[in-house]
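name: query_chain
kind: protein
chains: 1
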Amino acid sequence: MQWFLTLHRWAVERSEAMPLLAEHRAWMLKQHWAGKVVISGPTPDRSLGIIVVRAPDQQAAADLFADEPWVAHGMRTVEIIPWDVHELLGVDLLAKEAARA
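structure:
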């Protein structure tokens, strides 16, 4: 599994997307429960959504957002950035990877 930092930008006025907020939140919780989304939330001014994803590859990360309500309705764009996470919550992931080899 790989890590991806995803940046979600509005393609419409934010107010236009708010009728789908409940659907977005339900989708987000489902992805958290499935372990696909690890961290999620907006910037304080709500102009950008930031979501950390675990997926087998970049295509799987992109496919994950295909049915996210705001993305599916063309209200948000998604930028997917592959991310080599080295440490997480005090755990050296590089050392763990080396130990498995």
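note: The chain has one domain: 2-100.
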